[in-house]
Design goal:
The chain is built from six helices and two strands, in the order ααααααββ. By secondary structure, it is mainly α. Strands 1-2 form a two-stranded antiparallel ribbon. Strand 1 and strand 2 form a beta hairpin. Helix 1 packs antiparallel against helix 2 and helix 5 packs across helix 6. InterPro entries: FlhC.
């Protein structure tokens, strides 16, 4: 039986607490630490003050390709890619740092963040697996999340070419 390092366990607990504070689901904690399910469950309840959410993690790439979520996903991915290239952080630490920067940008811009930590984590996994890629917009030159087979020559982002009904939802209606 291999003995578990106290230092490794301490780092895992510290990482799990940081993940819980960012809103990570229990499945993310299980994937990113070597702590037992029971230990993570107790830790989650202690840190969050409630039981973790139930249900499956998002598993489809489709959400990241819709208009507004794509803009948020693209901002996060660009931050994550920069952090990954500019530092030597572990993968999950780069995800946490990029998500914090994304969230700070949303607060500074007074914009409701659409990307939860768990979605950002899943998006990073999709990008690493090549299920989603970045494509350069033919108008503004920005890099946006897209499908791997997107025609880059004619690709236009949701900022340069928003859908016809963009911004005309219920929030924009005036009732008499």
């Amino acid at each position: 039986m291999a003995t578990k390092s106290v230092m490794t366990e301490s780092r895992d607990i510290e990482r799990a607490v940081a993940l819980i504070q960012l809103g990570a689901r229990l499945q993310v904690l299980e994937s990113e630490t070597s702590l037992s399910y029971e230990r993570l469950l107790r830790l989650y309840k202690e840190v969050a003050g409630k039981s973790p959410s139930k249900g499956q993690l998002p598993f489809s790439t489709d959400w990241f390709l819709t208009w507004q979520p794509n803009i948020h996903a693209s901002l996060y991915v660009n931050i994550h890619r920069y952090i990954s290239k500019a530092s030597e952080l572990d993968d999950i630490d780069a995800v946490m740092k990029a998500y914090r920067m994304y969230a700070e940008q949303m607060v500074a811009s007074d914009v409701e963040p659409l990307l939860s930590f768990t979605r950002a984590w899943r998006l990073t996994r999709f990008m690493d697996a090549g299920m989603l890629v970045q494509t350069k917009c033919s108008c503004c030159g920005g890099l946006f999340v897209s499908e791997p087979y997107e025609n880059a020559r004619h690709f236009q982002c949701g900022l340069c070419n928003p859908p016809a009904r963009a911004g005309k939802g219920r929030a924009g209606l005036k009732l008499h």
